[in-house]
Amino acid sequence: MSKTIIISNRLPLQIKLEDNEINVSPSVGGLATGMKSVHEEGDSLWIGWSGLAEEDLNDETREKVQKEIEKNKCAMVPLTENEVDHFYYGFSNKTLWPLFHYFMEYTTFENENWECYKEVNKKFADVVLEHAEDGDTIWVHDYQLLLLPGYIKEKKPDTSIGFFLHIPFPSFEVFRTFPWREEVLRGMLGSDLIGFHTYDYERHFLSSARRLLHLDTNFNEISYDDRIIKIDSFPMGIDFKKFYNAALNHENEELEKSDIQKRLDEHLHSSDDCKLILSIDRLDYTKGIPNRIKAFEYFLEKYPEYQQKVRLVMLAVPSRSNVPQYQLLKRETDELVGRINGKFSTVSWTPIWYFYRSLPFENLIDLYTSCDVAMITPVRDGMNLVAKEYVATRVHQDGVLVLSEMAGAAKEMNEALLINPNNFEGIAQTLKQALEMPKEEQKTRISLMQERLERYSVEKWAEEFFTALNSTKQVRNTLVSKKLNNNLTTKILEQYSTAKKRLVFLDYDGTLVGFKNNPLDASPDEELYNLLDTLYAQPNTDVVIISGRDKETFTKWYGDKPYTMITEHGVWLKEKDSDWSALENVKKDWMPKLRPILETFVDRTPGTFIEEKNFSLAWHFRKVDPELANLRSVELKTVLNSLIANHHLSVLEGNKVIEIKSGNVNKGRAASRMLVRDDYDFVFAIGDDWTDEYMFRDLPETAVTVKVGLQKTSAKYFVQNTQEVRTLLKKFTEAEILEVQTNS
Ligand code: ADP
Ligand code: G6P
């Protein structure tokens, strides 16, 4: 039976060594806690690192670790001390983590760490390949394994690979500073589906893929190699029932209270208006811990009536303590807590209760259920599950969530009180609002958030991800069936050889030659001349170059050649030994009127230019930033469409060009005119562009139509690039033509 393979650096269980004995506890962090429920449900294997370096283990402890891992449906990727240093602390947590969270001043770029990152990603790939069977679904997680999808796809191209990034994907302006940006993007693009927590991260990724790899994107799909990769956002949920039920259970009077709970109760019962404010996070500089403490200090100063009444309960879980920035943060936090407690404490009250340790689940529930306000103030956070967990435990629909707008969770939790973590004034006022919020309002806000959290739980999140991943399989299957593989090519060649009369339509730019920034640079090369000459010389074969270009350019390039040519999408025709003749009766009196409009677009969009043909005006935007180009082209189309009504003009969108033409001239009409000239029994058309679609649609069902590139098409088949076009045409020229048939 096929299974799901979950791969992340951190396994859901954290293993520590104590006197040759192993000590197992659940891992902290959003990824491990969230995916745990997904893993427990279905048939799945979780591959990751145990948390221990190989050098720390002897034969006996290794075996124990191994057993523990297998017992939990996991498999291990062993890491050496050196790898833990360079891959985990080094590249993952000194480069990617700070960079992706916009902490550029903390980001280091060390080549040695990068080399090790690649090696360890390969090591993960080896373990995955050892376990992966046909039909398995592979789900790779997070920033430690950005290259892994690429490595797996290389070896097992038919497996379905999903990737989910649990942290933000930064804006292009930040990502472009990263020295290995192309490699990392390509690694991620080994997946069939790439998921992010929010649409912002998704659009940042798409923008980087477009700008750095110059890939074509179609809404949220990227064409890459011979695949279409889907990019989407899936805001991760929590195991709502687990937290809700744990909180219900917590109310059971018969259960013995934990020490922490007893102390929390003491504070709460000390007077009627005593309140607790909670914060829980890994001790990480992205979590805005110093800001939060300082804002709390400001609050106590600004609203002294709250002194001796409210307490901040702050749980910071130790994390990545080998990285210097985390050590500095620990020191800063200790000092701040010390200073503020020193400044405000009385005999019976300390403003901040600070725990620096990992607590068991039951204690987390004590904290969540006892605190009146949760104050979650990250300066940058992919999602933040703690915010969701707090809301889920509020079984009486009371409590207030104060949440940083920099957390991915803020996008969905509109009923929280949203704050900017750098605005102390705003935080102080919001805290006051939270502490004074009427119960009715608390209820309205909490219940709306709970409804959503219950509906979009972590199971639902995983289910939606899998559904999207499965649908990429269907797209892949359609593409596979359309791809011009060897078998299909052989069949087409057979039809070609045995036909009595052949008609071949060839688009020019993007089909016979690659795209150039300047259209004049796309002149034919020697190889192309030879190819066309040979094809043209085939008996009973009519070859037509059909292009949007103007006739002057083609006259320059092919004036002394006998080829049949159609230019300007079907306005002009030239055949052997004759001059250009008009295929369509078209007008050009509209051109001086519309040209100034295009000129305003050129002025406002640097890098674009106008091409004036005999009967059309084209606005080219190949050299422009893709996002600006997209924006402007939508704008131009809107303007043009409102102007051309009743003028017998049409607006065509080609590959990075918008063209206004007289009448409904198009390649489909032109091709149909050629078709009726003879009794063709083999018709072939190839093109890369939207304007070629007219041809694909208008030619008879029996025609062999081929699209260059992976865009949506009505063509029957596709090839990937101009090189493949030439290879295919070369096969035509080498085909054995059965002339006997034509003479009979
Ligand atoms: P991050 O992923 O950056 O650590 P999140 O808030 O998304 O931040 O996730 C933190 C997760 O770690 C939550 O699911 C929370 O319940 C869990 N967690 C936090 N503290 C502890 C702890 N002391 N023991 C166990 N789990 C914890
Ligand atoms: C965040 C990351 C996870 C990571 C977790 C804990 O949630 O997205 O990938 O596992 O923090 O960090 P650690 O370095 O201890 O694995």
Describe this entry's structure for a reader.
The chain has a nine-stranded mixed sheet, with helices on both faces. An eight-stranded mixed sheet has the order 22-21-20-19-18-27-28-29, sandwiched between helices. With 744 residues, it is an alpha/beta fold. Residues 740-744 have low confidence and may be disordered. Helix 9 (240-250) packs across helix 13 (361-370). It has four domains: 4-233, Glycogen Phosphorylase B (Rossmann fold, 3-Layer(aba) Sandwich); 240-455, 3-Layer(aba) Sandwich (Rossmann fold), CATH 3.40.50.2000; 480-582 and 665-734, HAD superfamily/HAD-like (Rossmann fold); 591-662, Alpha-Beta Plaits (2-Layer Sandwich). The chain starts with a strand and ends with a helix. Helices cover 44% and strands 19% of the residues. The protein is built from 26 helices and 29 strands. The structure holds adenosine-5'-diphosphate and 6-O-phosphono-alpha-D-glucopyranose.
Relevant CATH superfamily of the largest domain = Glycogen Phosphorylase B
Would you state the CATH class of the largest domain?
Alpha Beta
Number of domains: 4
What's the pLDDT, averaged over the residues? 93
How many H/I helices? 26
Strand line-up in the sheet with most strands: 5-4-1-6-7-8-11-10-9
Helix content: 40-55%
Please tally the β strands and state the result. Answer: 29
Catalytic activity: D-glucose 6-phosphate + UDP-alpha-D-glucose = alpha,alpha-trehalose 6-phosphate + UDP + H(+)
Protein name: Alpha,alpha-trehalose-phosphate synthase
Keywords: Glycosyltransferase, Transferase
Family: In the C-terminal section; belongs to the trehalose phosphatase family.
